[in-house]
């Protein structure tokens, strides 16, 4: 049986109260922290995988949910990294959409959701595109802003493979939103795609007055930077 007990012992031994306080403050005190920063945490995960391996397809849901249930935020970061390794080793199954949704709607904040969107949902829909008509549509219509953010951002790494009609449709569904994290996501995906097709992004922004000022500003950042060079 897959065990996280050695991992917990290592986490406790690495606790840094001063850094924990600063990290919690940065995250608006929504989560408790051990005070373990990204690089040391990466080392802890690497050592854990050496000892326990990567959770199998039969184990991954329980392991991730157990880590997600723990108070300190670093455990959710570890769950994301184990999920990355799991996908690399085993691929991603249709049923893993349930786990992606669980991670998205529980203990939601940009630090986990953005990783889920651009790494896990990205792989899910790339490998199982038919799920866009079922799971994808459910997430797009959800009242949960984080599921909608995932659907705005999952094509972040698609570049020339971006499904432009789908992207346009999803953005337009979210026009008029007052949610900062929705409007920021729209700007982010437009900015990222402008590195592939600046003309399309420029035209899309010009033709859609309902885009928030935040979305427009973020979406045009790369284009304006290029114009200044």
Automatic annotation (TrEMBL):
Highest taxon in the source lineage: Bacteria
Pfam families linked: DNA_alkylation (PF08713)
InterPro entries documented for this protein: ARM-type_fold (IPR016024), DNA_alkylation (IPR014825)
UniProt-recorded name of the protein: DNA alkylation repair protein
Protein source organism: Pontibacillus chungwhensis
Lineage summary: Bacteria, Bacillati, Bacillota, Bacilli, Bacillales
């Amino acid at each position: 049986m897959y065990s996280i007990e050695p991992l917990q012992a290592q986490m406790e031994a690495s606790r840094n109260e001063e850094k924990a306080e600063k990290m919690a403050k940065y995250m608006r005190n929504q989560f408790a922290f051990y005070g373990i920063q990204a690089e040391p945490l990466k080392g802890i995960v690497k050592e854990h995988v050496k000892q326990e391996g990567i959770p199998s397809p039969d184990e991954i849901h329980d392991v991730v949910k157990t880590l997600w249930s723990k108070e300190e935020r670093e455990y959710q970061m570890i769950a994301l990294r184990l999920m990355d390794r799991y996908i690399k080793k085993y691929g991603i199954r249709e049923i893993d959409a349930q786990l992606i949704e669980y991670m998205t709607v529980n203990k939601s904040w940009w630090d986990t959701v953005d990783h889920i969107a651009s790494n896990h949902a990205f792989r899910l829909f790339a490998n199982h595109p038919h799920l866009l008509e079922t799971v994808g549509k459910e997430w797009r219509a959800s009242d949960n802003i984080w599921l909608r953010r995932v659907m705005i951002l999952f094509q972040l790494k698609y570049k020339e493979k971006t499904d432009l009609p789908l992207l346009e449709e999803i953005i337009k569904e979210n026009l008029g939103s007052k949610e900062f994290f929705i409007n920021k996501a729209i700007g982010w995906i437009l900015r990222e795609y402008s590195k592939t097709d600046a003309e399309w992004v420029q035209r899309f922004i010009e033709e859609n007055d309902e885009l928030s000022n935040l979305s427009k500003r973020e979406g045009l950042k790369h284009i304006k930077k290029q114009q200044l060079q």
